[in-house]
Amino acid sequence: MTRLRRSFGAPLAALIVLLTGIWVLGLIAAPQVIMIEQSLWKMDRPAGADELSVQIDRLYNRLDMLALDRAAARTLSTPSATDAKLAQIDAERAAVAAEIADLETRESTPVRTWTLTNYAQMGQAHLRIFAKTILAALAVTAIAFAVCYPIAFAIAKLEPPRRAALIMLALVIPYAINELLRVFAWQMILNYGGPLNAALGLLGIGPVPFLESGSGVFVAMVYAYILFMVFPLYNVLETLDMNQIEAARDLGAKTWQIHRRIVLPHARPGIAVGCIMTFMLSAGSYSVPYIMTRGTAAPWFAQLVYNRFFQASDWNVGAAYAVSLLAVCTGFVFLMMRLLKVRLRDIAK
Amino acid sequence: MTPTPSGMDIALSGAAVRFGTFQAVHPTDLTIEAGEFFSILGPSGCGKTTILRLLSGFLDPSEGEVRIGGQPMAGIGPSDRPTALIFQNLALFPLMTVWENVAFGLEMRGWKTARRRARAFELLDMVALGGQGDKLPSELSGGQRQRVAIARALAVEPAVLLLDEPLSALDLKLRQHMRAELKQLQETTGITFVYITHDQGEALTMSDRVAVMNRGRIVQVGSADDVYDRPATAFVATFVGEMNRLPGRIESVAEGRARIATAGGSFLAPNPGGLAPGAEAVLFLRPERLHLLAPGEAAANVLEGGLVRRDMEGAFSTLIVETGAGRLTVQRVNSGSGGLPAGPLRLGFADRAGVILPAGETADDAA
């Protein structure tokens, strides 16, 4: 703080601290805290709600009785006696009605109860979908890595710089298009009556229900998130000294040995970043499975979370689902870092 | 140490390299003897690294042939040649420990861990890095890293060691020390060393023979004395060491020597190219071959001039003298006799001191 003030002056230093605070609070802490908080309570009927409703029923009966009494009172002999009786009954009715209103508010105002039960709400079916989503996201990550590693290596190390820039541009262009449009386009390509099935039909194959079988989600997801794998890999491979590869070859290493001993170890931070991003994005993807399956295949977990919030209107359980996904994703990050022996500092680079 | 591996000889015959339209190396014939310390000296971009890549197998000649140990190398990749390369930036593997670096070639040959570790530590002992095997390369000093690179290359027991300016990253003191070490290593191992450098000091001190390259051509091959004292072209004369230049025209020739008329007078010097009278030529003269003449002292060649500057450099001093032939550099051994005589200086040099060569490209033109 003192150092900041010395380098930038008090107003600028205050601004920097303020902006950092907003960043940390608004972008990192607040969303997680809100979601976790939401997942840790539920609204319950208040304690003694059953007795309250019995009491309320009893009071309603009393009100009905009073109405009967009031009707009977009109037939009393003396008008003064009638008036006195009516006034007495009305006063009592008002008192009873007020009590009913009070009790009803007490009965119908749910009480916020802190609980972990939201996390126990996942039934077997949902657990299976949760596991399937995680496995599928892992598979998407693995496929993306298998596709991207050779591409990134070829661009970074084998192509002359100018052509490499051109190829990277060609890789980026699809990502200038809105994700929805891209996914819808693939939805149409893979559709039962789409061009791919038409082409397969010419060869006498199919039609293949790509979308209905759920494999369409895979294709679209690899396509949608592959760039998040290519770029970290490319960036890290570009920093690999070509002499290292040549030195290894000169010392007798075969191509696969060069990759295993030199290139892959060097690429570890990029692999970690690429895998983490691809995994997180595909594990939490909502639009891709939604568009690709249109309900014809089993949902992905993100869709379940959405349904908890908006169809079941149970925000607390929805939040618990979301936090579970977050926990698994965070676990994946640490697992990747452990496996690849990468520290946070390397990833930040 | 294992039994001394013997070096192999190398032969380039008509080997040339073209990159598109650029002729990186013109057709070259070159023979390097087995067990020789051979340097290729030249400015950057002269094609010396390209020749090294031809030998190491990272590059195939566009035409001609490379033979190592009598075997044609066509179609044999870097991993299968009896060569090992030491890179300019050393290219140590930063994520492996020092001993893993040294043992890398053995690992690739399928040696078991214990055996290659033992061998790596043997080699590290040999280069005086005994206790450093479990460190990372980044924890070593520049000179130590240098030795790791040497040990790593020697581990695969090459017959030819190719060195691509490996000392250029070191400071002067260390460089001089490493020169002596490399030379000694070459003598004890008997391996053929091919050493690429743009530093003539390195080439002259270590090499049995030096090839001077310019623009894709080897312009002279010879011992250090040959290229320094008997340069074949104006380029070699100016690239290797300091050189004064006195352009002029040949007046007369006799017995391998010629008399050349320059703006500073007419001088007698060797004429190795056999230039004929009337030819345009340049007299090249080393600063240390020019002497200050005492009053009345005679010399084969004499010229006069005024002192412009004197730089005291310790063991010797450098004088810049303005003469009729332009500014000349004179190197004067510090004999302890003190300062210079006042007034104009008389300079003299022997009739074998200089060399007359046809005017041509010099190192300054190339740069």
Name the features.
heterodimer, A: 349 residues, mainly alpha, MetI-like fold, 3 domains, two-stranded antiparallel sheet, elongated, B: 367 residues, alpha+beta, Rossmann fold, 2 domains, six-stranded mixed beta sheet
Describe this structure in words.
The complex is a heterodimer of chains A (349) and B (367). Chain A is built from 17 helices and two strands. Chain A is an all-alpha fold and 349 residues long. Chain A has three domains: 2-39; 49-109; 121-348, MetI-like (MetI-like fold, Orthogonal Bundle). Chain B has 367 residues and is of the alpha+beta class. Chain B has helices at residues 48-56, 98-102, 104-108, 113-126, 142-155, 172-189, 200-206, 224-229, 234-239, 363-366, and strands at residues 10-19, 22-32, 37-41, 63-68, 71-72, 83-86, 160-164, 192-197, 209-214, 217-222, 244-254, 257-262, 265-270, 280-285, 291-292, 301-312, 316-323, 326-333, 345-349, 355-358. Chain B has a six-stranded mixed beta sheet with strand order 6-7-8-3-9-10, with helices on both faces. In chain B, a hairpin with a 2-residue loop joins β9 and β10. In chain B, α4 packs across α5. The interface between A and B is medium-sized, with 17 and 26 residues. Chain B: One of its GO terms (biological process) is quaternary ammonium group transport. Chain B: This is Spermidine/putrescine transport system ATP-binding protein. Chain B: Residues 10-240 form the ABC transporter domain.
